[in-house]
Write a structure and sequence with these properties.
By secondary structure, the chain is an alpha+beta fold. It has 2 domains: 33 residues, no CATH class; 140 residues, Cytochrome Bc1 Complex, Chain A, domain 1 (2-Layer Sandwich). Helices cover 42% and strands 21% of the residues. It has 7 helices and 7 strands, in the order H-E-E-H-E-E-E-H-H-E-E-H-H-H. The strands form 3 sheets. The chain has a 3-stranded antiparallel β-sheet with strand order 5-7-6, with helices on one face. About 4% of the residues have low confidence. It comes from Culex pipiens (House mosquito). This is Cytochrome b-c1 complex subunit 1, mitochondrial. InterPro entries: Metalloenz_LuxS/M16, MPP/UQCRC_Complex, Pept_M16_N. GO terms for molecular function: metal ion binding.
Length: 179
């Protein structure tokens, strides 16, 4: 019962908070970590740091989080990370855009990226059995983009339009000014 679980967790040093309003228990942050898989940290010879977790699930997520967010940009290269993120899935030297999309779709995968103040992330969600192929595709995306002039000009227009939208958002402008 919930009472026995609560007593056991409290004895172990994890206080349980109950929500009486809806009759459901809400757990503390420490309790939520009890079922989390162990994270293994590995550093390769080339300095690349890897965090991995074994979940024994049929799906997985693999990603690259690169410390190159907007806070590290200068006036000269302002917006470069955001622009490259937009170019990421336009194709590589080995896979043109349609072939890259087909490779991801054939694995039932989802490839995405985002840029924040602290980092730029490229990640892929797919079936666990396809992890080696996902790692290969992700590495290809970040190491050998195909940057054609026409595609760069098109993405420049898209990126500028998105930046204009952000500048029209009071919340986004205030956050930028605070940083």
């Amino acid at each position: 019962s919930m009472w026995r679980i609560s007593r056991a967790l409290t004895k172990a040093g994890y206080p349980l908070r109950l929500s009486l309003r809806r009759g459901q228990a809400s757990v503390s942050y420490a309790q939520s970590l009890l079922g989390a898989p162990e994270t293994r940290l590995t550093t390769l010879d080339n300095g690349l740091r890897i965090a991995s977790e074994e979940t024994n699930q049929p799906t997985c997520t693999v990603g690259l989080w690169i410390g190159c967010g907007s806070r590290y940009e200068t006036e000269k290269n302002n917006g470069a990370g955001f622009f490259l993120e937009h170019m990421a899935f336009k194709g590589t030297k080995k896979h043109p855009q349609s072939a890259l999309e087909q490779a991801v779709e054939s694995m039932g995968g989802h490839l995405n990226a985002y840029t924040s103040r602290e980092h730029t992330a490229y990640y892929m969600k797919t079936l666990s059995k396809d992890l080696p192929k996902a790692v290969e595709l992700l590495a290809e995306v970040v190491q050998s983009l195909s940057l054609s002039e026409a595609e760069m000009e098109q993405q420049r227009t898209v990126a500028l339009r998105e930046l204009e939208e952000i500048e029209g958002s009071l919340q986004d402008v205030c956050l930028d000014l605070l940083h």
